[in-house]
Amino acid sequence: MQAQTLAAQYDVVVVGGGLVGASFALNLAQQTRDSGYSILVVEAVDSKNFDQQPSFDSRSTALSFGSRQIFETMKLWSAIAPLVEPIVEIQVSDRGHFGRTTLSSAEQGVEALGYVIENRELGGVLSEAMQASSVVNLLAPAKISQIKPCQSGMELTLARDEQLTRLSAKLVVLADGGRSSICKNLGIDQTQTDYGQHAIITNVAFEKPHLGVAFERFTESGPLAVLPLADFQGSNRGSLVWTVSELSRAELLSCDEEIFRSRLTQYFGERLGRILQIGQRVAYPLSLTLAREQIRPGLVLLGNVAHTLHPVAGQGLNLALRDSAALVHQLVSAKAQGVSPGEMKILQAYLELQNQDQSESVLFTDQTVKLFSNDRWAQRAIRKLGLLGLELLPSVRSRFAQSAMGLKP
Ligand SMILES: Cc1cc2nc3c(=O)[nH]c(=O)nc-3n(C[C@H](O)[C@H](O)[C@H](O)COP(=O)(O)OP(=O)(O)OC[C@H]3O[C@@H](n4cnc5c(N)ncnc54)[C@H](O)[C@@H]3O)c2cc1C
Q1: What is the C-alpha to C-alpha distance for residues 143 and 341, in angstroms, rounded to an integer?
Q2: What is the mean pLDDT of residues 203-219?
Q3: How far is the CA of 386 from the centre of ligand 1 (A)?
Q4: pTM of the model
Q5: Among the atoms of ligand 1, which is closest to the Cα of residue 56?
Q6: Starting at the edge strand that comes first in sequence, how are the strands of the sheet with 60-64 ordered?
Q7: Which ligand 1 atom sits nearest the alpha carbon of residue 143?
Q8: What angle do CA 159, 165, 168 make, to 5 degrees?
């Protein structure tokens, strides 16, 4: 519901209506629709103007099976399902070295290992759901410029149409992404590990159909993934995420399509036949960025503002969706107990619930980047053993697949 008039106070204000903020708000609305939290989402970019929305851009996301279950409980999966391409097999290989493994949905006993969707499409479903919701109030375009503690929770300064308005919330859910100025103003520090790598993203049309196979290929410069995309006008499309150094980034972004095509063929091979077409190339700097504090009275950080992960293991959004579901769970019980949603004991209970999941996801991603991003002989040997282990030991393979699917054993 587009907010026409603003109330002076809300139970929950979500700052940022990107993939994480929108998913959280809709989940909370769905789980508490009878008990009635008042919810406001403030989003800086006009939600109908997808071209400028940084969260709903040309990237694709591999949603885990666990994320599918979350969207099912939110009653959104039926709208998302027609837009996804199921991953039925993942082929993991190491360029130039022996060692390769295949993970299949049949072996794991699930319909799919994951589901690939373009962020723009997922954003469209979430935006429409927010507009249609009678519980979520969406204010866009509007920006929160400041947050500070007040007696009832948090006071927010809202900038809209060149006017400043003040409102308050019992709980502010900060989901404003990895470059949060609000966090800085609040004095919440971050630790940052710069991997010195960039992800080049583009959609590629191949000669042969992908048949639902996702390829993860480890190269000297870093991992290269091709995720299967739903057919578009009869073309066999894949979403490329190619991790490269700063030097290669500049070269691969500026070179003409022919050169890019031959470089990609050199690293990816002809698994899907010839490369027919390359879409627009965009680069993202890669780092591991973790907020030193995720909760304060009346405040919780969600999504990239809390933890920005390397995309190698496809964990960022999947983890944020699990965080969101855990937070919703605590807020439902706060409502039942008659406790304010911004109370520290509620937020602490949320963090305790997600602490292990967050640490494991961060460690799994960080170690995968480090293990597979260079060519030192010792790491090559471990890598070879790792891939062999995955190939030979069904229990190891099953655990790896479960981690990659976002399903905890
Ligand atoms: C190349 C790449 C590939 C990836 N692939 C995967 C994958 O396969 N699987 C996976 O799980 N994850 C993946 N990720 C991670 C995933 O994309 C992120 O976890 C996710 O986009 C984070 O979303 P967010 O909503 O937290 O932040 P953002 O997407 O940055 O959204 C923040 C929103 O807040 C708004 N905003 C900012 N400041 C304000 C303000 N002051 N007031 C109001 N609104 C504001 C912005 O306009 C924006 O809409 C990938 C990431 C990259 C870089």
Answers
A1: 23
A2: 90
A3: 31
A4: 0.91
A5: 29
A6: 60-64, 114-118, 85-87
A7: 42
A8: 110
DSSP designation for 81: G
Q: Shortest CA distance to 328 belongs to which of 173, 123, 147?
A: 173
Closest CA to 44 of 169, 158, 135, 156: 158
Count of alpha carbons within 13 angstroms of residue 265, beta-carbon side: 16
For residues 355 and 314, what is the distance between their CA atoms, to the nearest angstrom?
Answer: 19
Helix (H, G, I), strand (E, B) or coil at 393: coil
Q: Please tell me if the CB atom of residue 291 comes closer than 6 angstroms to any atom of ligand 1.
A: no
CB 140 within 8 A of CB 161: no
- Ranking 162-176, 330-344, 357-371 by mean pLDDT, the lowest is 357-371
Q: How far apart are CA 399 and CA 368, in angstroms?
A: 15
For ligand 1, the distance from its centroid to the CA atom of residue 140, given in whole angstroms, is 17
The CATH code that applies to domain 9-61+119-191+290-369 is 3.50.50.60
The DSSP output letter for 90 is E
pLDDT band, very low/low/confident/very high, at 378 (cuts 50, 70, 90): very low
CA of 46 to the centre of ligand 1 (A): 16
Distance CA 10, CA 144 (A): 14
Amino acid at 127: S
Indicate the SS3 state at residue 153: strand
Domain ranges of the chain: 9-61+119-191+290-369
User: Letter for the amino acid at 36?
Assistant: G
Q: How far from 120 is each of 13, 27, 82, 316, 388, CA to CA, in Å? A: 24, 19, 14, 17, 37
pLDDT band at 300 (very low <50, low <70, confident <90, very high): very high
C-alpha of residue 23 to centroid of ligand 1, in Å: 12
Calpha distance 86→74 (Å, rounded): 20
Go through the chain and tell me how many residues it has: 409
Collapsing DSSP states into helix, strand and coil, what is residue 25?
helix
- Strand pairing category for 236-245 and 223-228: antiparallel
Would the CB of 116 count as within 6 Å of ligand 1? no
